[in-house]
Amino acid sequence: MSATKRENLIVGLDIGTTKICAIVGNVTEDGIDIVGIGTSPSSGLRKGVVINIESTVASIRKAIDEAELMAGCEIKSVYAGIAGGHIKGINSQGVIAIKNREVSQEDVRRVIDAAKAIAIPMDREVIHILPQEFIIDEQDGIREPLGMSGVRLEAKVHIVTGAVASAQNIVKSCNRAGLDVADIVLEQLASSEAVLSPDEKELGVCLVDIGGGTTDIAIFSEGAIKYTSVLSLGGNHLTNDIAVGLRTPMAEAEKIKQKYGCCLSSLVGKDDKIEVPSVGGRKPRELSRTVLCEILGPRVEEIFTLVNREIVKSGLEDSIASGVVITGGSSILEGMPELAEQIFNLPVRRGVPQKIGGLTDVVNSPVYATGVGLIVYGSRNTTMPRDTFTQGKSEDSIFNTAMRRMKSWFREFF
User: Fold this and answer.
1) Beta strand pairing status for 19-28 and 31-41?
2) Per-residue confidence (pLDDT) for residue 293, from 0 to 100
3) Is the residue at 245 inside a domain?
4) pTM, to two decimals
5) For residue range 196-229, what is the model confidence (pLDDT) as tens digits?
6) Does residue 210 fall inside a structural domain?
7) Would the CA dihedral through 160, 162, 167, 168 be positive or negative?
8) How many folded domains does the chain comprise?
9) Where a domain ends, among 299, 324, 352?
10) Domain enclosing residue 325, as ranges
């Protein structure tokens, strides 16, 4: 692989509750080509948060080794995803007076600083500052204020904060696996880069990323992110329900979910049967697939009802005209979009990574939405000075890139 080609490689590391996935993308003039993928079962996380660093490091190494082998390169730096119930999103705004009557880059920086001047507890840190819109002298809806004239500049931003410890544990796990972390990215933000179209973001859309341990929500309207939330419910709860309801080991419950799982009884034939292994060496039993459906249906309904509650809480239920996009590994379950449509009363589709080249047949699944999205995010942000997170850095510097990150978002997004 030539040196120039090697420099254009970006790696997304999706550190999930059920799997750790490393995806290598090559940024070309035409877009992004996926050149390597590595996955490994994840055992060191619970509900999106690291609870065992050694297990997480081992899983990361395995996924990275697999991706290196497929891509034929050495991986040094990654964009890592972060999720978990500790993630909180808040909207804020700041106002400044414009001295020279023409908005400069410095004015934009100052107004963003004013917007992020909110009280944040000591144990929390800013992960993202995402601009929504700028207002100059009461003229709203401005995406690109540079060069415009006025007296008063306002900025509306969405600030995402997370627990310092959780972010540090992700960085520490990557460092121990021999990797630098180029950036920490909110997982639903990464997924949105891969599966949502600009039209959907403009018209208004709710992204629901249903992973193993968490369900991540992001609501977009008028091209900008307006609301983020994380629910501590996911595919593992479905597996657990099957294990308890059918009295079968967790590993077998997972296989049954993937092979026969369905959450809408109308999609299941009356004569469909499944074989269920028993615990403790007893003989396997044969059950109707409807029984499995009756176990999964209420839990999926609960997840979507909680998501719907978040949409109502955000006050944006009238702004998501293009509907709901569900993605993440658990969204593959048969009947998910149909059940979601019933609960949200909106059009629902499954989101798979779009507009990518290379190994498209392999990554053409909701499972890889976050991993591919991390690469897209990374490709948008390579213009900024790279600040890699390593163990030698002081703790508070882990998030010092927030400002640079915001500027590059501002450049790319608007």
Assistant:
1) antiparallel
2) 95
3) yes
4) 0.88
5) 999 999 999 999 999 999 999 999 999 999 999 9
6) yes
7) positive
8) 2
9) 352
10) 198-352
